[in-house]
Design brief:
single chain, Glutaredoxin, Thioredoxin-like_sf, SCO1/SenC, membrane, copper
Length: 208
């Protein structure tokens, strides 16, 4: 009986080892980047630049990038969306890629305003949705849902302040992050940093 017991334990260890090796290789290989889930995308339903209702369900099965912005932003938004347009162009022909840009000034950013903004800034990917709705719901989505800061502040230029980071979402509707060399999640991607943008492109390709 003891021999059978040891054979059983050996078999379990062998099976576990076969399963675990690819995970270890993926985590530590210099040729691959390990990624992890850091959150789940909350439910939402907002209106895009074409006047169409878009929800988180519309992005299921797609890899997409999330940002918070507003069309009259006088500071970081123009550069963020210039960089986002480059990401759009990189994956333009891929129907499984998308972008969700949430306006934090929805009272001004109507679908008509967003459509004009899209045209002006070369936003043409069919899965790039500029989204507007109720401000409190969008602020909750930013701050609690995606952990990307957004707030109204009449003391700052433009009256709003927000994070300049992009969130990456996988096909399962999860917020994902690459791990650094110490095994810690990087979190988000700086929308103003060329190095981060290159990492983002690489990670999108990995998820696609």
């Amino acid at each position: 009986m003891k021999n059978y017991k040891y054979i059983g334990i050996t078999f379990i260890i062998l099976i576990f080892g076969i399963w675990a090796v690819p995970k270890i290789v993926d985590r530590f290989s210099g040729n691959k980047v390990a990624m992890t889930v850091i959150g789940k995308v909350p439910s939402y339903q907002l209106t895009n630049q074409d006047g169409k209702l878009i929800s988180d369900e519309d992005f299921k099965g797609k890899v997409y990038v999330v940002e918070f912005f507003f069309t009259t932003c006088p500071t970081i938004c123009p550069e963020m969306n210039e960089n986002m347009t480059k990401i759009q162009d990189e994956f333009f022909g891929n129907p499984n890629f998308g972008i969700a840009s949430f306006s934090i000034n929805p009272e001004y950013d109507t679908p008509e305003i967003l459509a004009a903004y899209a045209k002006k800034h070369g936003i043409s990917h069919p899965n790039w949705h500029l989204l507007t709705g109720e401000r409190d719901a969008i602020f909750e989505l930013a701050n609690q849902g995606f952990n990307l800061y957004a707030a109204y502040n009449p003391k700052v230029k433009g009256n709003f302040e927000h994070s300049g980071y992009f969130a990456l979402i996988n096909k399962q509707g999860e917020i994902v992050s690459r791990l650094d060399e110490y095994g810690n999640p990087k979190g988000y991607y700086d929308g103003l940093d060329p190095k981060d943008l290159n990492m983002l492109k690489s990670d999108i390709k990995k998820l696609l």
